[in-house]
Write a structure and sequence with these properties.
Blueprint: H1 13-35, H2 59-73, E1 77-82, H3 85-93, E2 99-105, E3 117-119, E4 137-142, H4 149-162, E5 163-172, H5 176-183, E6 186-187, E7 202-206
Parallel strand pairs: 1-2, 1-4, 2-3, 4-5
Antiparallel strand pairs: 5-7, 6-7
Helix pairs in contact: 2-3, 4-5
């Protein structure tokens, strides 16, 4: 279940210490991975951060969505992934294919991807670098971090600003009406799966005839 900040319980100092230890171990693991020539683009190379309400797609789902994005973008197409890093990682695995991709993400750990990483906070939907021209992406894939109308509405501003037209949105089934209202997208048959089971049923929504039906 995704929560608003005020719902998050305050942690005791004991729990905090344990968490810090956990993060330290995690950083050491990350460090080991990099030194062993670990593939930085593979799913799971950056672990989920539940405090940022991150939930990675299963490998199969990320592959399906990446494949759909490449088809929809067309030859030499540009793809933007908003808060959908596991799709971005799958797209990066297809190096040499004829498309380019950007990742807009709040989690600065993704800055390891260099130029393609754009820091993004949905609370400031149009606070984007000048070189991200309006309507310069053939398709925008987005997975707003929270199941709230406010989050969807703000992310929608960014999506509409960046896309030439095609939109692929992944969010909860409960957001169907809001998704139609803010983005004109309809639910398709494909059911996205996550690497961990989420309490909320997730669906994909599109505004063009796509291969996910």
């Amino acid at each position: 279940k995704k929560m608003d900040d005020d719902d998050i319980p305050q942690l005791s100092s004991h729990t905090l210490a344990a968490l810090q230890e956990f993060y330290l171990e995690q950083q050491q693991r990350e460090g080991m991975k990099t030194s062993q020539g670990f593939n930085q683009y593979s799913i799971g190379s950056i672990e989920e951060d539940w405090q940022l309400s991150q939930f990675w797609y299963s490998d199969e789902t990320a592959s399906c969505l990446a494949k759909e994005a490449v088809l929809a973008a067309g030859k030499g197409g540009r793809i933007a992934c908003i808060s959908a890093p596991s799709v971005y990682q799958k797209l990066k695995e297809q190096d040499g294919e004829d498309f380019s991709v950007c990742i807009l993400e709040y989690d600065r750990r993704f800055s390891v991807y260099g130029e393609e990483f754009i820091f993004y906070d949905y609370n400031h939907p149009l606070d984007l670098p000048k070189n991200l021209l309006p309507h310069s992406f053939d398709i925008v894939i987005a997975d707003p971090p929270y199941l709230s109308e406010e989050c969807l509405q703000k992310t929608a501003e960014t999506i509409k600003h960046l896309t030439k037209g095609k939109i692929l949105l992944c969010t909860g089934a409960v957001m169907e009406e809001q998704a139609a209202k803010h983005l004109g997208v309809k639910m398709c048959k494909f059911i996205p799966k996550h690497s961990r089971n989420l309490a909320n049923e997730f669906r994909c929504y599109v505004n063009y005839p796509c291969g996910l039906d």
